[in-house]
Specification:
Length: 394
């Protein structure tokens, strides 16, 4: 990886600018966070079948469901039978292949919205956000398969799968990331939208150059930027709920709680790999069984920070193990994953530790990756310790 590219990816640490406290996201694949393990998961038969599915068809089904459900915004009658028919005919089997819990949540929301047992707007948000969580997992499967194709010198197959990923990004992930960029006032190199686009561009370049190693590194930029948008989305609803309670505006608390819950599902399993107890508590907090008026923004942010910091520590350990085994390609991918998780905490780092600490973290992150790439174990260890020391101050 060229140094200029690395600097662009992590340049956000060097930017000043107005940012709000906190971060947020959504649910992530319950089987996600396993850099090298990730490719193994993505090579199983179910995920190979998923790659053959057409993203356009599934996104259209999602859009059609959403359009019908959003009639309620104009106080129009929603045809719940139509919503159910679209889901069962065009999405249900595919969602079940990836995560049966996602499908159960969507089915329950459709049923509850139709019967009136669940507030219709709460049902709408669960259907919308949990379907987005499914698309995130679909994206991960496609990414893993594209990486395997490239390793097998099947560049055309890899390019086709990336076309699917790009379609999902343009129609699902980027619109979600745009809202979070706006809420947290992130722009330029701090923008999640720009980082998603940058990652996709670098991946396409790697495919054009038949460079499987670079592709595996760059896909972490794309994937973890999407991940960050879901995390920051979920976290933002903790902030919005706390503010609404403080101001006495409690009418839409359950709706916002459902949105925070839905986004969390995409990354919940991954977060468990960083801190299982924190991930479980976040799920309980956003669960509809919990009183939304009790949701505390600082608690939500603290739990997310704890779990994401745990993810970073895990990747630093994996990098050391990979270097000890002489597995440099895996170490580079894991180092990029670790750095992208560190980058997710940029807002918190600037707000709590200040601009200079964020610059310091960026510098060590870049030098850590370079040392790992050059197989300089002792130097990598020094930068790793400095990174973790800063994160432990959060």
């Amino acid at each position: 990886m060229r140094k200029s590219e690395l600097a662009k990816i992590f340049g956000a640490f060097l930017l000043t600018g107005s940012v709000l406290a906190g971060c947020s996201s959504a649910s992530d694949e319950p089987k996600e966070e396993k850099s090298a393990e990730e490719s193994k998961e993505n090579s199983n038969e179910d995920q190979k079948e998923e790659a053959a599915l057409t993203s356009e068809t599934q996104v259209k089904a999602y859009s059609d469901m959403k359009a019908e459900l959003e009639k309620m915004k104009e106080d129009q009658e929603v045809d719940w039978d139509k919503v159910n028919e679209i889901y069962t005919s065009d999405l249900q089997s595919h969602v079940n292949e990836v995560d049966g819990e996602f499908s159960q949540a969507i089915e329950a929301a459709i049923s509850g919205g139709q019967s009136g047992d669940l507030d219709k707007n709460v049902a709408r948000q669960i259907i919308d956000k949990v379907t987005q969580s499914y698309f995130y997992q679909m994206q991960k499967g496609l990414q893993g398969q594209a990486a395997e194709d490239l390793k097998a010198d099947k560049g055309e197959d890899a390019a086709k799968k990336m076309d699917e990923v790009k379609y999902l990004a343009e129609n699902v992930f980027i619109p979600t990331a745009e809202k979070r960029d706006s809420y947290y006032e992130l722009s330029g190199e701090s923008s999640m939208v720009e980082n998603i686009k940058n990652g996709l561009s670098l991946q396409e370049e790697a495919i054009a150059n038949s460079n499987a190693e670079d592709f595996s590194v760059y896909k972490q930029v794309t994937d973890k930027s999407i991940y960050q948008s879901y995390y920051m989305a979920s976290n933002s609803y903790g902030e919005k709920i706390s503010k609404a309670v403080e101001e006495g505006n409690t009418e839409e608390l359950a709706i916002m709680q459902a949105e925070g819950y839905g986004f969390l599902q995409a990354i919940k399993g991954s977060l468990s790999g960083g801190d299982e107890a924190a991930a479980a508590e976040l799920n309980d907090i956003f669960s509809l069984e919990n009183d939304p008026a009790t949701i505390d923004a600082e608690k939500v942010n603290s739990l997310y920070t704890k779990a994401i910091t745990g993810k970073v520590k895990g990747y630093h350990e994996k990098v050391t193990e990979s270097l000890d085994k002489g597995e440099v390609a895996s170490a580079k991918e894991q180092a990029m994953e670790g750095n992208m998780f560190s980058k997710m905490l940029e807002v918190n780092i600037k707000n709590k530790l200040g601009e200079e600490k964020s610059k310091e973290l960026f510098d060590h992150s870049q030098k850590w990756f370079e040392a790992v790439s050059s197989e300089k174990g002792d130097e990598a260890k020094q930068h790793s310790e400095a990174i973790l020391d800063i994160l432990n101050q959060l």
